[in-house]
Design goal:
It contains 6 helices and 17 strands. It is α+β, with helices and mostly antiparallel strands. It has 2 domains: about 5-115 and about 295-304, Diaminopimelate Epimerase, Chain A, domain 1 (Roll); about 125-290, Diaminopimelate Epimerase, Chain A, domain 1. Strands 1-2-3-4-6-7-8-17 form an 8-stranded mixed barrel. Helix 3 runs antiparallel to helix 5. The protein is globular.
């Protein structure tokens, strides 16, 4: 058993402390048991904590395990950004190929102060649209009605391991007005097979971004997630599918990338920004890259 581990508190998808999405990062965690990891994640009480491990094969440069205060997660975008921001702050060699339960993703550390971290994923799965009675139940649980929806945006289940219901709203005022009934949303998650609800608008009150969003995940123990990189990857694929990106009005075979910025977190006092890049090959979505900054809030050690 190791004597101690280095623990960092990091705010991701922001360049300012106490904004964005907080994550724990634990270095050199190979000697920790799974129980140790779960207990430490619970003690830190962030939405997610990343544990950095040595590689166990030739196809990757490091391994991460992600734990919420309640259980292990397959992949967490903001904790990935946080981890590589810590490695950059320690001036360690970039470890580009990252393995976790969901597979291997590519991570780039881009110059800047703070540096920008980008991770690249395969296209997410686009699932079914909600049935009428399902939609009404979701809207009622969010204190919304059908008149609050953006009619261009069909309510849809998107994703595989991190499945979300995507719900397009008419404007920023409607987005701010949403109120989640956590008990009802948890029950609906069992029926829908989606533990989270990602609400967004294409009519933000911030001219610097294309979208503003909120996300409720009570089934995961997260009442409202400040800023989600994974959900913005889902959003990018969704907007492309429904031709809701300005660039996508051009003939898709002529495009190689489409980029946009999304805002999230302002409704919980932790504003953040996510940059999304959609990579296309012959008119089809080939990969999604999520990019953001991160800032270290503090470093400590925990003895075992």
């Amino acid at each position: 058993m190791t004597d101690s581990v280095r623990v960092f508190q990091v705010d991701a998808f922001t360049s300012q402390r106490f904004c964005g999405n907080p994550a724990g990062v634990v270095l050199d965690a190979d000697e920790l048991s799974e129980r140790d990891m779960q207990l430490l994640a619970r003690e830190l009480n962030n939405g997610d904590t990343a544990f950095v491990l040595r590689p166990d094969g030739p196809d990757h440069d490091l391994r991460l395990r992600f734990f919420t205060p309640r259980n292990e997660a397959a992949f967490v975008g903001h904790a990935t950004v946080a981890t590589h921001a810590v490695l950059a702050s320690l001036q360690l060699e970039p470890r580009r190929r990252q393995k976790q339960r969901s597979g291997v993703v590519e991570v780039d550390t881009l110059p800047g102060n703070p540096p920008r971290i980008a991770f690249r994923q395969p296209p997410p799965a686009l699932g079914r649209e909600l049935a009428a009675e399902e939609l009404d139940a979701v809207l009622e649980s969010l204190a919304l009605g059908r008149s609050d929806l953006d009619t261009r945006c069909p309510p849809q289940v998107v994703g595989r391991s991190s499945t979300r219901v995507l719900l397009g709203l008419g404007d920023a005022e409607t987005l701010a007005r949403a109120r989640a009934d956590s008990v009802r949303l948890r029950a609906l998650s069992l029926r829908l097979g989606a533990p989270g609800y990602f609400l967004f608008t294409l009519r933000p009150d911030d001219p610097a971004v294309l979208t503003q969003a909120r996300m409720f995940c009570p089934a995961l123990g997260i009442e409202e997630d400040p800023v989600s990189g994974n959900a913005h990857a889902l959003l990018g694929a969704y907007l492309l599918q429904h031709r809701l990106l300005d660039a996508a009005t051009e003939p898709l075979p002529q495009l190689r990338t489409i980029e946009f910025n999304g805002a999230q977190g302002q409704h919980v006092g932790r504003p953040g920004r996510v940059a999304v890049t959609l990579e296309l090959e012959q008119g089809r979505l080939h990969a999604v890259s999520i990019c953001g900054e991160a800032v270290i809030v503090f470093e400590s050690r925990v003895n075992f």
